[in-house]
Amino acid sequence: MRLFGHRPCPLDRSWSASVTPSSPRKAQAALGSAEDPARDDLYRKIAFRVMPLLLLCYVVSFIDRTNIGIAQVRMEKDLGFSAQVYGLAVGLFFVGFIMFEVPSNMLLARIGARKTLLRIMVSWGVVTILTSLATTPVLFSMARFMLGVAEAGFFPGALFYLAQWFPSARRTRMTALFFLGVPLSGIIGPPLSGWIMHSFGGVLGLHDWQWLFVLEGIPPVLLGLAVFFLFPDRPAEAGWLSAEEKRAVIADLAADQEHKGGAERHGSVLRALRDPRVYVLGLVSCGAYTLANAVSFWTPTIIKTAGVGDVLDIGLLAAIPPILGMAVMLVVGRHSDRTLERRWPAAGAEFVAACCLVALSFATGSAYVVIVLLAVMTAAHYSGLTVFYSIPSIYLSGPAAAGGIAMVTTMGSFAAATSPAMLGWIKTTTGSLDLGLQISAGVVALGGVILLLGIPAQALRERPT
């Protein structure tokens, strides 16, 4: 049975007339320019086979990572968990994620992307299901830590898989499409989670949040198996590509590697450690990740505090900000690419989000005002993060680039691990999130200031293409 339909590619009918089977170089040459219709059809065919399932996996990944936000609305009452316990558990996810990211990537290099994605998805699905049994703060925290361990390496594994199919000139578009999984998870996840908790609470004697973890833990297991059985490891093993198409893709990828010329070397991490630009970007990423946690893990709590009590209503309202966020992200991203301006869109988004965080700390009792502020904040988060992700590869160059980008991500992950614990502790201590939101706003705004003052405009000048 086919997972996706197959539209005949023009290359199937005419490739042999222009490509000698024994010559990958000629196959690559026959592809012509990037605007070659035959080449476009070939990579469109590959994208149609690969991207829907891979994107769905990423959506499910973020749903299982962030569903704790709406589950916590009920767990606090059922288990007597404080916001401090919740914040610590959210942070422990990122601790496990950071600790096992490198080992997972090392295993990825040995066993390949398909087996890596199977291992990761099945394990995180099982851990999500087992979280339903966590009835003490210790068990709950352990479950979140293990979920971070299980999910570590998924994103690099997915990008590595894309690199087996798309040369760099086309991979950027596929990566951008893959990134849509984040806002899509925000649109799909909260209403789905709210509906599960609203509909299944008390069934078979289980709490609503227990059903949430059980039912949302099953899809990654099934998707992991689907990836393993439906995805070939590389183009040469794809039964849905003709021999000529396989040779063409292999030649494209080989030419892509030859063009890179081995610029990335083993000393890239050491060079990155000595490069002050890396620390500037890392500090900016701390602000971005602090904002990400405020959006991803505390939105349901903020909506509940505004006076919305039903979990289904909370889930439906929580889906509104990502809808606006995705639309604004696409507009800002296109504007940034057209004008080649990176600093101000990214920094401006940080400033807008910081203002929204401060305003949220004063907007008590008005659900409408809270939803508007959350929507603007989420739009700023998505658009700013999208533009910021394009800066490291432009600003960093040479042997330090690869290690530097990894370090920037790691520094941001430390902020992701500490900011939820800070917010939870403040909520438990003061009885509200207000002070925590204001401190988060300061961190986010500081990231924008560092971006503008620490990165010269001329350092990000790009040539129009």
From TrEMBL:
InterPro entries: MFS, MFS_dom, MFS_trans_sf. It is a multi-pass membrane protein. Keywords: Membrane, Transmembrane, Transmembrane helix, Transport. GO terms for cellular component: plasma membrane. The chain crosses the membrane at residues 46-63, 83-104, 116-139, 145-163, 175-197, 209-231, 278-299, 311-332, 344-362, 368-389, 401-423, 435-455. It holds the Pfam family MFS_1. The keyword RNA-binding does not apply. Residues 50-459 form the Major facilitator superfamily (MFS) profile domain. GO terms for molecular function: transmembrane transporter activity. It is found in: Cell membrane. It comes from the Bacteria. This is MFS transporter. It comes from Actinomadura rubrisoli.
